[in-house]
Amino acid sequence: MFESWGRLVHRRRRSILGLSLIAVVFMAVWGTGVFGALTSAGGFDTPGSESARAAETAERALGRDGADVVVLYKSTDGRTVDDPAYQRSVDQALAAIPAGKTAGATTYWKSKSPQLVSKDRTATYAVLQLAGADAETREKNYDAIADDLTRTPGGLTAKVGGQQGTETAVNERVSADIARAEGMAMPVLLILLVIIFGSLVAASLPLLIGGLAVLGSFTALHALTYTTDVSIFAINITTFLGMGLAIDYGLFVVGRFREELERTGSTEDAIAATMSTAGRTVAVSGVTVAVSLAGLLLFDQNFLVSMG
To answer: Which residues contact 82 (CB under 8 A, 6 or more apart)?
Structure first.
């Protein structure tokens, strides 16, 4: 079967290459949209457990925790919260937030809570509750007002935190770190592969396969987000495993192909022999890895299921 597949790929190489390029473009454009569809909140609880039922009961009886966003205002000119001008500055900043995006805001001047003021009284928190009945809507509302939250009248600085702000920061950090890690790893890997193969073309193939594996993983995860919640942690797993295994498998295939090409002198025969040996090994190994990781699907926690 593997030998026949190798010969078919050789005979249809132009058509397969064309279809592959179309697939790569699609994965690069649509697949990378997965970063905006992943969830960074929750996923660590067990649905139906006693703790989950208790949390649902508390929310029904007491309402949802309103601390979605916390904005820290701090005076830069020595004013304290006792200064009416300080209060006016904060009120102006909160009033500038687009209507309909928040369901309420709690400040020191409304609550008189000392927990909302620093010891030197030059800094204060404003606690905002986002509008929206579900997490997705609240996330969209936060994205719509994120820039407005840091805009303040003169004499104040603003820093944004809270649950929603933290989740957004996690998403952005994961995306940036993955790009940074791959940018650092690729040149090092390329140098090592050139040393191993003694050829730039042969060395670049495993890296190319690794990049395609990552794009394919992004595309698969993006498709899954339409049917279930997928944790942001899945990106890390698919990137590192996809790149590592693809380069490993690429070494098997490229190394064996070069040996067979030198022995037979025929590209088609070399591909067929490579697929029937190294190709079979890669297929068995890939299925083994997939079956092993599929065990994570048996857990109830969403972040473990996402990794599976």
So the answer is: 121
